[in-house]
Amino acid sequence: MRKIATLVWKDTILRFSSASEILFFLILPIVFTFLLGGGFSTFATEEDTDSRIPLLVVNEDDSDLAQALLDVLSTSETVRVDIMSRDEAEAAFADETAPALLLIPAGFADALLTGETAVLDLRQLPDDNNATIAGRAVNTAVSYISRPLNAARASVTIAAERQPFADNAARHAYFTQSLALAQDLAAETPQRVTLTQPETATTQNGDYNPATQSSVGQLITWVFIPLLGTSGFLALERRRGTLRRLLTTPTQKATYLLGTITSQFLVGLVQMILLIGFGILVMHVNWGNSLGGLAILLVAFALTSVAFGTMLGTFVKTESQASNLSIMLGMSMALLGGCWWPMELFPPAVQNVVKVLPTTWAMQGLTDMVMRGQGVNAVLLETAVLLGFAAVFFAIGILRFRHD
């Protein structure tokens, strides 16, 4: 055990003896996770992230109907209402900070209630598509608040035909009552056709989150590449002759391999913990509800990765070969495994072919837990497949292991 601990410490110091290792261990994973996950939006204000068209609004009519119009506009998916004084709005519109300006004049509600023509002052920038869209949004909102008024007027007309009102006060009271009823009915959510999808389609597409995809995918990518770099340690030891000298001592081959594998495995686990912490604290990613399921899947993935690196180390001749192959294989397998964009975007044939890659199974398992909130039972298959990969890679690496 002491020899294994000594080898672990030696390999850890050797691994971080180069400043470039910090680049792959922490800097690049964090940078790519942050950028691909839309990290800058975390620090953006609500106005910065609101893609709706700004609509300057001046409300000079202190009435319930004017407020109702503003309430409808505020729920629009196309325009963002910015309420200002007349001077501020006109100055902003003159500077073209918004494509449209809406002025609700005094007496707007009175005109509507008496059946007169209510005039809104809508100013739009010429030859501007956004101004046209804003104008349509205003028309839609006006139409929405006008429907209860039209219904109330129609109700008054029909009632008067059946029995004339005693006086204007009775007519107005009936109109007010009808308007309140029509507004209540309009406020109720109408019956809509609900489109349902199979559960598989919902879980695959309905819960996609860029930050989560980036946090999970970049963790797999940047843990996988350095662990493939285990091959470089074996090549370095062979070139220096230290591996041959070490094996002439009472140290057995199994002890040496166990020490090397353990050091890389533990460093990989530490890297995973740091990247998960970054995802939680900075990217606000919820890494699932099953700590146990997450732990066994990450351990299985780390074992598979270091096993692959061990096997690769028995094929390469130099550290340069090991480094180049580690980066090339790591990037391509992560890319094909769905770590850089969702696997659902791949053609069905490709989705089946890439199941021969351990990165595919790792990404699938982590996606099930992190994006879909599933637990241990949901990732048992992925864990078993990853451990199967690890067993095969270790077996090949041990059988091919040579000290020169």
State the total count of DSSP E strands: 4
Low-confidence stretches: 197-206
Helical stretch tally: 18
> What's the structural domain tally?
2
What is the element string, with H for helices and E for strands? Answer: HHHEHEHEHEHHHHHHHHHHHH
Report the sheet with the most strands, covering strand number, pairing sense and barrel closure: 4 strands, mixed
**Widest β-sheet, arrangement of strands:** 2-1-3-4
Q: Taking Cα atoms only, what radius of gyration do you get, to the nearest Å?
A: 33 Å
Class derived from helix and strand content: mainly alpha
- Average pLDDT confidence is 82
Straight-line distance between termini:
25 Å
Judging from the principal axes of the Cα atoms, what is the shape? Answer: elongated
Strand content: 5-15%
Q: What is the helix content?
A: 55-70%
